[in-house]
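Bump. Still looking for Transporter structure tokens.
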Amino acid sequence: MNHRTYSHNLRRIIALLVLFFACSIPVHAADNTESSGKQPLVISLDDAVRIGEQHNRELEIARLDRRMAGQKVRESWAEVLPHLSSSLTYTRTLKPSVIFLPSSIFGGTGGTQAIEISSDNSSIASLNLSQNIFKLSAFAGIKAASLVRKISDQSFRQSNAEVVTSIRRAYYDVLIATEKRKLVEQSIARWEEARKDTNALFRQGVAADLDTLKAWLSVENLRPDLIRAQNMESIAATNLKRVMGIDQETPLTLTSSLAFREIAVPKSVAAAYGEALDKRPDVRSLSLQAEAENAKVMAARSEGLPVLSAFGQLDAQTQFNDGESISSTRWPVSSTAGLQLSVPIFSGFATSAKIQQAKIERLKTRTRYEDLKSQVRADVEVRLSNVIEARKRIDVQSKTIAVAERSYRITMLRLREGIGSRLELTDAELQLDTAKTNYLQAVYDYLVATAELEKSLGRIDPAVEAKM
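Sorry for the wait, here they are.
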């Protein structure tokens, strides 16, 4: 009697706990679904990349930097183009200017007499033109600015490659998180069926209390995994929206799948290294920076050379007293033109210091370039190794899935023939799910590794390259 009472109370406790956990999770999911009233954005991987290239803020900053570099080129050309300016000056005489003349001129007897020589109002209109004829630093500046424009183009390509890689990785993160969440849900559903079967056998007196407890614990131990998987899926979706540059309130529906797609990879590290040196934007950018430093050295040296410029000026001036009509005044015109030669003689060693600074910057750039090549060599080796390793794991996990599927079929056959148990079948299903999870993880690692390798090699989609 005590055994029956204990068993009855145990079943009631198990039923209440199962009801509590079963009701809590669906309500939470429903709240998440109802919280967003927007239509889901249905996107493939290519769609996500395209949207990110349009809305990603880091890429927009790189795009603005490229426009800024173009304006700096225009600014540098100002040194070799004519400069034209005009001015208009009006002067009001508060106390007139005077000159002193001998009084004898005016019939006086001696001394001097003050004569006013200024009018109440005066005005001067000027037009000034200047043109550098020889200024070597200006041409060096133009060359340096043009190289800076090319450097900004490579920086934009680098930013674009980083954004595309981030979007691809974030997209794969959502896919793997979704698949893992589905596998946990499937495991819970199967263990629920096993629990029901065990309870039925327990009521028939075939199964023991320990079997019902094991079945219940198997279900409940998976629920934290489901909560964790749901949270990871939500975090991955949030990160994908961020790198795409879209509103966080927009729900997403992904159409691409976590499928194995093999890409062509270099056959050796040496081949990968050569391709990276030829294509990577950061390598090209630093190479151009070295050229720009040469131009800066030339610009610093040119500050010690003569500068020849031409100038011209056109003036029109008038004076009139109060009460006179402006239309009756005259505007006599005068003009001048000339050449100016400026020859630096001694600048307090400033020119020499600037030359040495430019040379030091050139050496620093060359050192950074050699260091970058070393980093590229190590980077492509690591990325290529990751791709090869993930590819091998895909092959291994494919075979593991085949074995797990065979084990599942045998266990199912044993259950149908009455010589197996539901728990054995559930365990076989768990092994199959584990094999599938490991396979999906290997595919995910391969896709992420290939995305990183393509960025490391400097590979850019031709369609994207055409837009740049």
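Residues 1-10, 12-35 have pLDDT under 50 and may be disordered.

Edit: fixed formatting.
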